[in-house]
UniProtKB/TrEMBL annotation:
<feature type="domain" description="Protein translocase subunit SecDF P1">
    <location>
        <begin position="230"/>
        <end position="287"/>
    </location>
</feature>
<dbReference type="InterPro" id="IPR054384">
    <property type="entry name" value="SecDF_P1_head"/>
</dbReference>
<keyword id="KW-0813">Transport</keyword>
<keyword id="KW-0472">Membrane</keyword>
<dbReference type="GO" id="GO:0015450">
    <property type="term" value="F:protein-transporting ATPase activity"/>
</dbReference>
<dbReference type="Pfam" id="PF22599">
    <property type="entry name" value="SecDF_P1_head"/>
</dbReference>
<dbReference type="InterPro" id="IPR005791">
    <property type="entry name" value="SecD"/>
</dbReference>
<dbReference type="GO" id="GO:0006605">
    <property type="term" value="P:protein targeting"/>
</dbReference>
<feature type="domain" description="SecDF P1 head subdomain">
    <location>
        <begin position="305"/>
        <end position="433"/>
    </location>
</feature>
<feature type="transmembrane region" description="Helical">
    <location>
        <begin position="583"/>
        <end position="606"/>
    </location>
</feature>
<dbReference type="Pfam" id="PF21760">
    <property type="entry name" value="SecD_1st"/>
</dbReference>
<feature type="domain" description="SecD export protein N-terminal TM">
    <location>
        <begin position="2"/>
        <end position="104"/>
    </location>
</feature>
<dbReference type="InterPro" id="IPR027398">
    <property type="entry name" value="SecD-TM"/>
</dbReference>
<comment type="subunit">
    <text>Forms a complex with SecF. Part of the essential Sec protein translocation apparatus which comprises SecA, SecYEG and auxiliary proteins SecDF-YajC and YidC.</text>
</comment>
<keyword id="KW-1133">Transmembrane helix</keyword>
<dbReference type="InterPro" id="IPR048631">
    <property type="entry name" value="SecD_1st"/>
</dbReference>
<feature type="domain" description="Protein export membrane protein SecD/SecF C-terminal">
    <location>
        <begin position="438"/>
        <end position="603"/>
    </location>
</feature>
Amino acid sequence: MLNRYPLWKYLVICLVLAVGVIYALPNLYPEDPAVQISAASGAEAVDQQDLDRAISALENAGITPKSQELNGSTGLIRLTSNDQQLRAKELVSDTLGDNIIVALNLADATPAWLSSLGASPMKLGLDLRGGVHFQLEVDMDAAVKQRLEVNASAIKEMLREERIRYRGSEVNDGTLSLTFSDGDDLSKSRSLISRDFQDFEFDERDVERGSVLDLKLTATAVKQIQDYAVNQNLTTIRNRVNELGVSEPLVQRQGPNRIVVELPGVQDTAAAKRVLGATANLEFRLEATNDTPASEMESFAFRSQPGRTANIMKDVIISGDSVSSASTSFDESGRPQVNINLDGTGGSIMNRVTRAAIGRNMAVLFIEHKTRTRTTMEDGEKVEKRIPYTEKGLISLATIQSALGNRFRITGLDSPTEAKELSLLLRSGSLAAPIYFVQERTIGPSLGAENIASGILSVELGLLLVVLFMLARYKAFGIVANVALTANLAILIAAMSMLGATLTLPGIAGIVLTLGMAVDANVLIFERIREEMRTKMPLHQAIHTGFERAFTSIVDANITTLLVAVILFSIGSGPVKGFAVTLSIGILTSMFTAIMMSRGIINLAIGGKTLKKLWI
């Protein structure tokens, strides 16, 4: 019979509609302004005592939190208004100290029953909901110092190979100083160094019981190092942002030594801050022997066992820069470990050194650059000063049983969280120089509240005008089209929520366009039905023919538009991509609701009935 659907089609329509409604519902629950606290290191955790201290400080200041949560190693304090966030953050930060990261957040307020189904609201871009804005500053002096330290290791290795004796070396104030007991050794060293290291300016001076050769980088070399540090850090931060899975982020250079990072719709801002700003790196060194001179070794404590120390060589075998990939797993005892793959050069160096050091211990040194902020009074005004410092600790000290190659593993980690963060940092690349957060803020709507309200109003007006037009033009069939249009909007929002798409202001424009295009299919179908009715075709046959003959035109029109949207997504960026995503999803959902759902409603209403007149 004409205009009858089999049962499975009705079930598909009901299932899609139910899923659309359920996964669109979380967008009706606005997020709560919140302050999130987490440990500065993945090896530590925030406990209930820390959370209680923070709550007490807020209550003493007259701020009553909405609720508090402790999820694993992270605490979350929900507030009642956005105005409380900044003040609450300052109070909690002053109360808990430097070992705790305090970040602004927007906490998900989706009911538990929806969350249990995996439903979550759409992510909103910086121009709608805002997000996190970080301004990072690259430590240029540290970049030069790190390069000097690398050159110092290479120069000392060269001098040992040439059997030239030196008393010691020191890197200070942008100068590498080598001390010699004999003037001939100094002259030979200067000749060798000038041959292989052409970026240095040389100066000689006499000291007690010897002479010193000072090596200082040229101005051109310093500028190249600083530019490299900023560009390398820019690449590394982009890799880390990609690891965080943030949609449509902005990472760009600003000025000579700063990097701007904007993370729209980010949930865990504290973790983002910890991962982006971490300047953690690894160094692999041999343990010092009993006859190693004191000037050639250093003593470090173990991170997991502060009372235990070990003496290791100053010379570095390889660093985290040689790591090509890293992943986490568990050893035979169920403890977390990081599996390391080295690049070709790093693997060759590791193999050469360990082959000659079988039976000795090799240490894995974890290095992390941090900063403390101190507020002082100068001329009656508060001035914040950033004090950088470095923490170094041993992760493991293991005996070399055989020569190592490109693959090995790091054990001795405290927790899976620490292993995961370490592997992420190694996988995304280490920073060429330390970076410091000079500004952190939550971005509000960049176009202002009035423009945001205008964008939402445009959707409402667009929907209202389409509804009124369809009712006036097609009467009862217009009601069917409007029901399908409403369902299309719900399914579109649900699809964007499920896919984790980020909604921006151009995305709202895509929704408005989708609402207008969604009824195009119904217009084609209804006009085709009218044409068939004018030929005196039976009403049921006219409905059936109208849907069948309009189908090809609908598919052709939507496919061409979809192709354009795909091209926009491929070659566009930022707002253009947001528009393309919304438009693409809207085309697919509108085809389903305009063709299948509309016909299903009509079939249920008049299928199998005797018709004398159609209200169309």
